[in-house]
Amino acid sequence: MKNIFITGITGLLGGNLAIDLLQKGYRVKAILRNKNAYKGITHPNLELIQGNLNDDLTPHLLGIDVFVHTAAETSQNLMKYTAYRTINFEATKHLFLNSVECGVKKFIFVSTANTVGFGSLKNPGDENSPIREPFTKSLYAKSKLEAENYLLSQQDKMNIIVIHPTFMLGAYDNKPSSGKIILFGLRKKLLFFPPGGKNFVHVKDVSQGIINSIELRVKDNNYLIANENLTYKAFFTKLNSIAGQKPVLIKIPKTILISLGYLGDFLRYCNIKTSISSTNMKTLCINNYYSNEKSKKKLNLHYAKIDTAILDAVTFFKKQSNG
Q1: What is the Cα–Cα distance from 280 to 264, expressed in whole angstroms?
Q2: CATH code for the domain defined by 3-316
Q3: Domain NAD-dependent epimerase/dehydratase: where (predicted)?
Q4: Environment class of residue 169 by beta-carbon count within 10 Å: exposed (0-12), middle (13-18) or buried (19+)?
Q5: Cα gap 320→173, rounded to integer Å
Q6: Among 95, 197, 70, 213, CA closest to 151
Q7: Which of 65, 8, 3 has its CA nearest to residue 40?
Q8: DSSP sequence for 85-111
Q9: In b/e form, how buried is each residue of 62-89, taking b as 16+ CB within 10 angstroms?
Q10: What are the residues whose beta carbons fall under 8 Å from the beta carbon of 291, sequence distance 6 or more?
Q11: Is the peptide bond before 124 cis (omega within 30 degrees of 0)?
């Protein structure tokens, strides 16, 4: 039986990954700041360790085969690059070095598709595409890319795999994180949407991609886990159909979003915390689309329709709201 150590178990991906690993017979250790924050399943093969990412984890890593690092600082309102770098780079480096010291065989780093260059519907971005604007100015993306570059420079010490998930949806989004887009679209009479689009993927497919990268003898280091490229209008149309609602869809003009973004930049310059920025608004106005061909061929992934991910998320949030 392989022994897996994971971070981010209270998050959307980490929670689903833990469930999937346990159901497949793996023994799982996970670190979290507060054990009471864990809302997942209990299992005899699951050990929860209360602590922080910067703790010395070597006592817990002896006998671990694979370290999967899903935890990250994803908040969009942080003002300084150091706020992202502390978690997304420095903690990643610390965890990797702890893993090296304990003889861990494989380190899987969950990054983001934002560090990979997006493309169009006809020519979607792939693993060979370099990061593009506006993500080159995203503090979050820059911190994840710095961590990627460090890890890939250390391949002589351990087998390194970088996973690049696109926008994940599904159940067990307890915080919530990316599921906020579902909550935003539910029970509205008027639904405003931006002019761009993005790639959506079921969180279970990302989890399966990680598991396959554990089980298969893969030679490459980078894998986009991506599925359907959709405009925001097409996404919300799907959501409305699945949720059985009929709001009026209203497109927000690009000029309004960009102007709002520059207002956010001014507020941030004045040290007023806000998630609004020109970078974030520009990402809503582009079609950042990706290919999943490599993951299908090399990781043997078979993707679920995004409708299933939306339904799972809607069902989960409705159950939560009903108590």
Answers
A1: 10
A2: 3.40.50.720
A3: 4-216
A4: buried
A5: 10
A6: 95
A7: 8
A8: HIIIIIIHHHHHHHHHHTT-SEEEEE-
A9: eebbbbbbbbbbbeeebeeeebbbebbb
A10: 119, 124, 125, 126, 224, 226
A11: no
Geometric angle at alpha carbon 286, from 284 and 288, rounded to 5°: 100
Would you state the pLDDT for residue 322?
Answer: 78
Q: Is the pLDDT of residue 13 over 70?
A: yes
1 pLDDT higher than 80: no
Beta strand segments in the chain, E: 3-7, 27-32, 46-50, 66-69, 106-110, 159-165, 167-169, 190-193, 197-202, 222-225, 228-231, 248-251, 287-288
CB atoms within 10 A of CB 171: 23
Euclidean distance between CA atoms 247 and 245, whole angstroms: 6
pTM of the model: 0.96
Is residue 107 a contact partner of residue 69, using CB atoms and an 8 Å limit? yes
Q: Which two tokens stand for residue 177?
A: 């994180």
Q: Tokens 């299992």, residue?
A: 43
Q: Which of 55, 63, 56 is nearest to 29 (CA)?
A: 63
Question: DSSP for 123-167?
Answer: S-B-TTSPP-TTGGG-HHHHHHHHHHHHHHTTTTTSEEEEEEE-E
Enter the tokens of residue 261: 């973004």
**Residue 214 to residue 6: CA distance in whole angstroms:** 13
- Rounded to whole angstroms, what are the CA distances from 61 to 13, 50, 66, 96, 162? 21, 14, 9, 11, 20
Answer yes or no: are the C-beta atoms of 68 and 6 closer than 8 Å.
yes
37-62: pLDDT as tens digits? 888 888 999 999 999 999 999 999 99
Residue with tokens 């990250």: 72
Position 113: which residue type?
A
